[in-house]
């Protein structure tokens, strides 16, 4: 408000005081004294019964009272609040009635029709403010330029408030949401009747952007609109609807209209109002805040008139920064998918409703899904499963070995005949062999080593599991960061557009050249590039996260933002400040986390298992000099059949020739054997030395890793502490720069700051906002890195694990003389 007053000029305090004195004491018929304040009576004229009767008029009354209430007693009497019946005749009668009432000092026309009729009174006997005017050029209203380049009515006692002429821009915006060619323009019947020339110009402008308009008048119900739409033949059917404000429509009727348009598959564009978008219409470029801005401008204009300025010299344009608004729920219902660049720059409504079927993925679910489904982790699981069999294979050497064999032997007949029955020409035999390793230190060592190797594989799996969890959590947080940075870039683009409006104003008043406008237009192009880059980074992160979760890389999902008080990251401010409040307390926390982490780190567990395996191998190498290998065996051979030459003497054979007993068909052998190598050419000694060296290497690797893990934990904690402090500092910086930007923007609007000053300050504000957003997510990621270095994540722990952690931490703190810490304490 202060900026607007400064833009329209300043008057010496003495003249203002004189004017107030004269109007208060020398013109009692117009402004009567009421105590220490003068009284101003304001009359209003409305088009007719409307849903805005209360909200619109009350908003204007409130703004006027706020601005003038300290100096004037503003009166809005019921008898001075008149309305027509949506016809020019009744509206004109209302004006004449207020003009004839000596008590009324000022008249405000509230409505498109009453504003238009007010502008047709030339000249008015009393100051008149008309609002809103849709387009003074289209409506053929009085419009001229003053010496400062401002558009004014130039008619004594007449001021109005008009939006910028943006009909073509609105049509282009409509087409950016969805292609439309034949559009039904729906408006109040009286508008078509009273503004035929404006309607004709509108048709011409719509045609210039490739739109064929079809005019459909409306009063207070949707049925007449539906009837008009349904009456079109297929060849003449419209493919879109543009709606001027239908102020006679109730809220329920607006919903009926929106539902009916959706049923007919017709996209809709609204001249003003996100409230009607909520009813189910598709898009607009102006929110209901525009009406509030109208109300503030009316209040400022009333103040200027009361201070003595002629209404005809007051600028008529309302500085407006329209932004495309899209109801995504309606777009979804119509099957409309706006272009990517349109979605980037538009304000999106009802996104959650439009995406009600889209999965909501929070941080915890993202991490757990990654652990369950990630392919890299699935590979590690298979390694674990395969590794279990190495233990079984090693253990098998200690268990009985039973072999079954069968043989068929065929020899030449003369050799069989000459064997005197010792060898038959054809012999069939079956054998059963049983072996049992009674004692082998090497075999036992192999079992122990394989068990330890499996422990190392399981620890490696746990390390990979934590890495995947960290990757998923970090990617999710980076995704949240990207969404935040995208919002910051979008806000920066809006700010640049606002500064372009200021530059246009500076050009109109002669304080800047068109070159300044072109520089802001160039900056808008750069900001749009930054916006596109930020959007691309966001999409890339969504693909990366889907890959980590082993899902369709294009699968859609909604994120859930987190804050410092979210328990999932154990990052509540009071809790963190408890840890880092003093150097001694932070040192205690580092020591505790190191002890906790060294005990749980899976990387160290794998190295401990490897060192234990090497120790067992070294022990085996030392024992190889004096421990034998003992094994037992049992072999049974059964002759199943003998035939051919040499088989006829099988009952006697050589035994009959030597006088001995003939052998039967079953042979068996039982043996026990102990083996101790005495001379191996130095192999055993070399194996012992090698095993000892490998053991030493394993122990050194464990010591080095332990040292490195401790350094990683401590460094990660220091970094997390710094990033936590950066959160508040970056936020303070952002607040300070925003205040500076407000001051420089005000100075720029008044011509006391240059383009470079404003652009530099805006760039600083952008960087400050980006730093503030980055600081929060930097801390979250640094905190996750601390937890990863410490061998586990808070969000993956169950209540028992968290309880153990808290109990041990509290014990440490109490032991060091600090109060115990409980996470359930109020944060």
Account of the 3D structure:
The radius of gyration is 45 Å and the shape is elongated. The model is unreliable at 1-34, 650-654 and 823-827 (pLDDT under 50). By secondary structure, it is α/β, with parallel strands linked by helices. The two termini are 40 Å apart. It contains 28 helices and 22 strands. Helix 4 (88-100) crosses helix 5, helix 20 packs antiparallel against helix 21 and helix 23 (583-600) packs across helix 26 (683-749).
Write the layout of secondary structure elements.
Blueprint: H1 2-8, H2 13-25, E1 32-34, E2 37-46, H3 55-68, E3 72-75, E4 81-83, H4 88-100, E5 106-110, H5 112-119, E6 128-133, H6 136-139, E7 144-145, E8 151-152, E9 158-162, H7 167-177, E10 182-188, H8 189-194, H9 196-208, E11 212-218, H10 223-230, E12 240-243, H11 251-263, E13 268-270, H12 274-278, E14 283-284, H13 289-306, E15 325-327, H14 328-334, H15 340-345, E16 347-349, H16 351-354, E17 360-361, H17 363-373, H18 375-396, E18 401-410, H19 413-418, E19 426-439, H20 441-508, H21 514-548, E20 558-559, H22 573-580, H23 583-600, H24 602-623, E21 629-643, H25 653-658, E22 666-675, H26 683-749, H27 755-789, H28 799-815
Parallel strand pairs: 2-3, 2-4, 2-5, 5-6, 6-9, 10-11, 10-12, 12-13, 13-14, 15-16, 17-20
Antiparallel strand pairs: 1-2, 7-8, 14-15, 18-19, 19-21, 21-22
Helix pairs in contact: 3-13, 4-5, 17-20, 18-20, 20-21, 20-24, 20-27, 23-26, 24-26, 26-27
